[in-house]
Design a protein that fits this description.
Layout lengths: L3 H5 L5 H9 L2 H22 L3 H5 L7 H17 L4 H12 L1 H32 L5 H12 L1 H10 L5 H10 L4 H11 L1 H12 L7 H31 L4
Length: 240
């Protein structure tokens, strides 16, 4: 009376085939690329650097202004706007303390959005491309020591912010340790840029010079860490 084979047989027809095609890893990756291109195009039209010249909209003040700035900061980092520019703007617009809080909130928000976009839309397709030795070793380090690796990347910036987000999303690293490492590791460098922005009107002040000195030292430290990690990855790469 019943046909058990037909019950287990996958549905056929144009609608199921279209659904499978739209949900395939490469279709989701294409959607991710389209979203990022759209975000980058919107950023180019918006020209966020105008904030440094024209200031913040006068109708937004106090905590509401800082909250809106944090949300905009997160969205702009997804669109590949460089964080140093946004950090300087945060300090120039809101001062050191409020600017730092808004910048850190935007940093974690942008990292989280990028991570989830990469994990949901790009991970399945991108993991099939991890055939090179260096990429495979980097994936293994992030998967096994994700918190420590991301913390080092944020403390000593050498890899672009957005690139680090999507690399972590491609790995097997969990979202909570990624966000925690991002928040903690971003504090020193973000604070230096925000303080520099808040003291930009006094470029010869000791505070401004100290902030710029820290930025230079952290950049040199990032180059050193990147060099050492590259050699370590070379040693950890699987042999043929």
């Amino acid at each position: 009376m019943f046909d058990p084979v037909s019950a287990a047989r996958p549905a056929s027809g144009p609608a199921p085939r279209l659904s499978r095609a739209l949900l395939s890893p490469w279709s989701r990756l294409s959607l991710l690329v389209a979203v990022l291109l759209g975000a980058a195009s919107t950023m180019l039209l918006f020209e966020p650097q105008r904030l440094l010249a024209s200031g913040w909209p006068p109708e937004l003040t106090g905590g509401a202004a800082a909250m809106v700035f944090g949300l905009a900061y997160g969205a702009l980092t997804v669109a590949f706007v460089p964080r140093p520019l946004l950090n300087i703007a945060a300090g120039a617009l809101f001062g050191a303390q409020t600017g730092l809080a808004a910048a850190l909130a935007g940093t974690v928000l942008g990292a989280g959005v990028s991570f989830m976009l990469g994990r949901v839309l790009g991970q399945d397709a991108l993991r099939t491309l991890l055939r090179g030795r260096l990429l495979t070793a980097a994936d293994g380090v992030l998967s096994r020591h994700g918190f420590r690796s991301v913390l080092a990347l944020r403390l000593f910036p050498g890899v672009p912010f957005a690139a680090a987000n999507y690399c972590a999303a491609t790995s097997r690293m969990g979202a909570p340790p990624f966000l925690l490492a991002t928040g903690l590791g971003s504090i020193p460098n973000t604070a230096a840029y925000v303080i520099a922005g808040s003291e930009a009107a006094s470029p010869t002040s000791p505070v401004f010079l100290a902030a710029m000195g820290f930025i230079v030292l952290s950049g040199l430290g990032g180059a050193l860490v990147a060099w050492r990690r590259r050699h370590r990855l070379g040693r950890d790469m699987p042999k043929d």
